[in-house]
Amino acid sequence: MTELVHFELDADGVATLTLDDPTTRNALTGSDIVDQMLAVFARIERDPAVRVLILTAAGKAFSSGGNINEMQRQIGPEVAGVELRQEYRHGIQRLPLALYALEVPTIAAVNGPAIGAGCDLACMCDVRIASEAATFAESFVKLGIIPGDGGAWFLPRLIGMARAAEMSFTGDAISAATALEWGLVSRVVPAVELLPAARALAARMAANSPQAVRLTKRLLRESQHSRLDALLELSAAYQALAHKTDAHADAVAQFLAARRR
Q1: 199-to-95, 96, 135, 208, 254 alpha-carbon distances in Å
Q2: In angstroms, rounded to a whole number, what is the distance separating the alpha carbons of residues 188 and 108?
Q3: pTM of the predicted model, to two decimals?
């Protein structure tokens, strides 16, 4: 099996997952890339040493989205519509579910064009940092298809319905500067500074209690669809857990020691 993703974990608990399929510009369909990414996510969930994940790509593109050769196969009469539905459900649609459910914070370091499903992949992460060379396009309509991987759920939550509709109905690309203005990315940096900036941000996250960070991420996820009273009830339960961690006890002790000086 060709290795289409590379995984690294540094001593501080910052993991980096790099897409590396130059022949397709890191397309997400028509290869084993989704399966390999899912295997990494499962590994991260089992490994308490991982505190933050950076998702980036090799080459000039972040991801070209869908593989055109795969689309040509799907058009053919030998593939029934009901079969295509199952291909999506048991194929690329596993990616947003797994990435969204990942407990550790995720940072997309978008190095170049993020097209179609590639744009949606960036949207699945918690934070996005873009190179000045990055562009973003919800371009499915340009090919006469729809966002089949959850983009219609993620994009409006990030930039609002009107701007998500503009991107989705035109399929036009936006620049990194526009993505920053619209709130799609947190910052834009020169290409040579992209990974250092992502790693610096990841290090600031990794420096905090891993249990508190994971529980905080879960609360943010639940807040998107919970009532206030339900979220407060969950917060009380999570806070009870957090109060009993060594990280909390150490932080309180250090604070009191510093105050006595």
Answers
A1: 23, 23, 21, 15, 26
A2: 12
A3: 0.93
